[in-house]
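ping. complex inputs:
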Amino acid sequence: MGADGQQGRKPRADVRRNRAALLEAAQRHFLAHGVGASLEAVAKEAGVGPGTLYRHFPNREALLAAVLQTRSEELVARQADIARLEDAAEALEQWLRALEDYFSAFSGLPEPLMAAARAQQPDNPLTLPCDTLVTTTDAYVRAARLAGHVRPSVEGYDLFLAAVSVAWVRGTGAADEESLARLRALVGTGYRERDDR
Amino acid sequence: MGADGQQGRKPRADVRRNRAALLEAAQRHFLAHGVGASLEAVAKEAGVGPGTLYRHFPNREALLAAVLQTRSEELVARQADIARLEDAAEALEQWLRALEDYFSAFSGLPEPLMAAARAQQPDNPLTLPCDTLVTTTDAYVRAARLAGHVRPSVEGYDLFLAAVSVAWVRGTGAADEESLARLRALVGTGYRERDDR
DNA sequence: ACCTGAACACCGTTCAAGT
DNA sequence: ACCTGAACACCGTTCAAGT
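pong. complex structure:
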């Protein structure tokens, strides 16, 4: 408790500049070298000392979460389109693909996200976005199941895990595009209810 | 070419001792801390200098491949049992589970194995065991498909990838046993031919 | 022929000193 | 209040010196 700077208005101009420069540099490095990129290099490229980076983002997860914020906004936008679809089965399929793309933003991203999904660690800044994705997935699965397109034994979390898995395989580079397509088809066959009755 | 020590008979006693101590220490550390365990610590526990470790195993993959040799022998033994099964569908299912267990031997093992599967890098010591596993998987898939138990669109490599994926999820700790069972069931539904005609 | 361990490079993280 | 950058710790990897 007490008035720490958390809600202080009008942050100093250099603070905002540093934060923005750090985020931009981090995104570039994560894109180029994966989520394990050197934080020292990020700080250097942002033109600040390593101490400044740690002052803004106490650990790698915090920096990663902040960088992912941008991607999350893209995902939300895509989600708005998906939510407008009439066919619940089609909506679920597109959502799973959107999830996979989100997880594929940076190489090595699935690992820290799964670590955040593992346990309710309130200190882990990736937990909140992760939980949101699981909840949204669950909603699409319920809707599609109500419409009779998803097997009763399949839960939302299962398909969340499946999407992360495909993203992980994609990130390893061990599967070409056709192989990935067949993997997605395998998952699709696994969760979809057969249409014939 | 030339007579390098590769095929030299009767290695010195201390060389054999060192190698054995390194393998044992490495296995312990890989079990405790995953495949990213500190090689310095491995050398220390084996009672040798870091230089000796590098002399025996030029890189982490080489050490990992040597440690996996033991596990591979377990897998081959298990494979002998599986090969004796009459039901090709049952054999495939058991083989996929054996694969998953193999990949789950150490935390973080799926990554380097997928890196080895990615490209034909003759220098990567994990390529050979990896290729063997893919080939064996393919054989089981072909047999099961001939017996009409696997969808025509499913290839052996797809199920190899699926098994690694499940092992990866298992390794992250983000899925409890029930969740993993449902994931395996999802894959099973995905590749198995429907029995009704 | 093999081993040793000092040495180098690189990085994450902290913190006393500055402004 | 924030930033700086030196400093510490840890690790992978190499290599000159030993036996």
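The two ends of chain A are 61 Å apart (CA to CA).
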